[in-house]
Amino acid sequence: MISGNIRVGVIGDPIGHSLSPRIHNRWLDDNDINTVYEAILVKPEDLESFLRAMPEEGFIGVNVTIPHKESVFKLVDEYQGLFTGQIGAINTIIVRNGKLIGANTDDYGFLENLKGKLPVENRRALVIGAGGAARAICLSLLHGGYEVTLINRTRERAENLAKYLNNINIRVLGWEEIENAMSNISLLVNTTSLGMKGQPKLEISLAKLPQSAVVTDIVYNPVNTEFLKQAREHGNLTVDGLGMLLYQAQMAFGLWFGTHPNVTPELRQYVAEALK
Ligand code: ATR
């Protein structure tokens, strides 16, 4: 049993709606770790002083959410993980020997969520969106031997991301080419915020999408997005975004406590209940 005055939590602005406390507090209980995972409001102007004080405040680490992921990248002492430097954003800080180690667990979360479901034969993916989440997702797909087609409303942003990733297996097409770009893919990923509660739907035709393709959405509120419903009606296997949230948390917990907690159907249910 780990006890004492260790602190752990998530920092962001706003922070009230974060699901991370619900997930991590369940795992802290399961593992008899005697602390509470906190939701901490940190304003951008207070970010650096908060980070510098973490070791003496007893933190073993924190998760980082909007709007701090890129700023924290520039403020940590070291990086952990193969892709963190390339992703350019931090979602997990580990305090080790008074130093702040930055990690990004989104690529793990994305892949682990698709584990056993990813097509291995025709490795061609269409990724929609070119924001922060798309970067980690494209990197993990390219590393997994995928050819990636990237399409974003603002084409220039997709071009910049492709240039940054500097890989011959990524190409950019225009938004108007979405439908045609689907004809030979095995994986379709929505990384945009479209379909999220309060946002417009992702409205695209899936007519040309092979039924054998897997369709996934990073949106998890609602868990069952209109986009995923549409894909299932079309005959495709779908994977929702809640799993990615749980698995990125699983790796963060592992980095802090050295033990990988379980992602169970009960945990999924418990977290999904908070979205109702
Ligand atoms: P995150 O870091 O969570 O990925 P982000 O960086 O703001 O968030 O990216 C949001 C993504 O959703 C972007 O790809 C954005 O497209 P633009 O680059 O053109 O802004 C996409 N997005 C948001 N609203 C959209 C809309 N109404 N139509 C199409 N794409 C949209």
Plain-language structure description:
It is a single chain. It is built from eleven helices and twelve strands. With 276 residues, it is α/β, with parallel strands linked by helices. The protein folds into two domains: 131 residues, 3-Layer(aba) Sandwich (Rossmann fold); 133 residues, Rossmann fold (3-Layer(aba) Sandwich), CATH 3.40.50. The strands form two sheets. It has a six-stranded mixed beta sheet with strand order 2-1-3-5-6-4. It has a six-stranded parallel beta sheet with strand order 9-8-7-10-11-12, sandwiched between helices. The chain binds 2'-monophosphoadenosine-5'-diphosphate (ATR). The site of 2'-monophosphoadenosine-5'-diphosphate (ATR) has 15 residues, from helix 6.
Describe the structure concisely.
By secondary structure, the chain is α/β, with parallel strands linked by helices.
Sequence-ordered SSE layout with sheet pairings:
Blueprint: E1 7-12, H1 20-30, E2 37-41, H2 47-53, E3 59-64, H3 69-75, E4 78-79, H4 84-87, E5 92-96, E6 99-103, H5 106-113, E7 124-128, H6 132-143, E8 147-151, H7 155-165, E9 170-173, H8 178-181, E10 187-190, E11 214-217, H9 226-234, E12 237-239, H10 242-257, H11 265-273
Parallel strand pairs: 1-2, 1-3, 4-6, 7-8, 7-10, 8-9, 10-11, 11-12
Antiparallel strand pairs: 3-5, 5-6
Bound molecules: 2'-monophosphoadenosine-5'-diphosphate.
